[in-house]
Inverse folding.
């Protein structure tokens, strides 16, 4: 059974939706990310940025497995308004046209013939449905607590950087009990341009007063990886939902399945052992964390 199919058990029938949600079995034949004008930093390795100063995290799909809930909300509401001749959108459409995009952009993608104010009202209503689903069914990405403890033990700076609206970001961070973990939360809606432009990540770097040469990003979407690369940082792609090759094509330096992935900890261990000037106590803490994975 695939990881996607297995995670069906995380999303049982929810009475908020009119039909029993079927967890998408996301295809690995989705169209690859196309080239863009944003700089690609795909050759950068994590060890190359040591000594590490900070780690930046996307929220949706990176801290928590929220993409299926967004999919359910969009599928239900788009079908209600007769989108696609009333046929429900499938997972391939969701990945290629919706995942990772800012709501203002989605207005033109999904509802190009609608007045902008009306289209944004649709998005606001969709986010409200998402929050109702998330309040009952949200699950963290496996191993999140381990990586957060590692970050804290090393005293690294950290920020959450998201295209999500404030109400979503605050709910998810609260449900994950990370209110005291993040020093900074950057919302794309408060930047000049959202992801895939680098503005949100540049704002986070400035707020933390750290260099992109000593910072990396956890991201799960094509737009987020392009934004991180555009800000001069390597990105670790989270392939919980999106195909690994799509994330690599977008410019991810490394793709992992979750925060317990041995590939991630091998890279972090290499950084600690070879280039990160840390105390023996922190080094011991890191090695003990590996034993508990």
């Amino acid at each position: 059974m695939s990881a996607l199919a297995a995670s069906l058990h995380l999303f049982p029938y929810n009475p908020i939706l009119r039909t029993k949600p079927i967890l998408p079995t996301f295809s690995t034949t989705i169209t690859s990310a196309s080239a863009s004008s944003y700089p690609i930093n795909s050759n950068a390795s994590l060890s190359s940025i040591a000594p590490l100063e900070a780690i930046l995290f996307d929220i949706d799909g990176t801290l928590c497995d929220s993409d299926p809930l967004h999919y359910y909300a969009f599928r239900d509401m788009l079908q209600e308004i007769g989108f696609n001749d009333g046929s429900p959108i499938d997972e391939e459409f969701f990945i290629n046209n919706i995942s990772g995009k800012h709501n203002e952009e989605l207005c033109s993608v999904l509802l190009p013939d609608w007045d902008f104010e009306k289209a944004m009202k649709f998005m606001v209503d969709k986010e409200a449905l998402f929050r109702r689903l998330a309040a009952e069914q949200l699950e963290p990405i496996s191993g999140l607590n381990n990586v957060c403890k590692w970050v804290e033990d090393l005293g690294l700076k950290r920020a959450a950087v998201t295209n999500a609206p404030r109400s979503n970001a605050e709910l998810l961070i609260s449900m994950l009990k990370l209110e005291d973990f993040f020093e900074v939360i950057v919302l794309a809606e408060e930047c000049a341009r959202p992801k895939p432009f680098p503005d949100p990540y540049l704002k986070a770097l400035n707020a933390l007063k750290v260099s992109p040469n000593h910072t990396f990003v956890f991201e799960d979407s094509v737009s987020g990886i392009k934004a991180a690369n555009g800000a001069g940082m390597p990105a670790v792609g989270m392939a919980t939902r999106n195909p690994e090759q799509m994330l690599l094509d977008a410019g991810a330096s490394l793709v992992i399945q979750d925060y317990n992935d041995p590939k991630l900890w091998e890279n972090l261990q290499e950084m600690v052992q070879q280039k990160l000037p840390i105390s023996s106590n922190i080094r011991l803490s890191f090695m003990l964390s590996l034993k508990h994975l």
Observations:
- The first helix runs from residue 3 to 6.
- The beta strands are 54-57, 157-162, 184-187, 215-219, 235-238, 254-256.
- The radius of gyration is 19 Å.
- The mean pLDDT is 84.
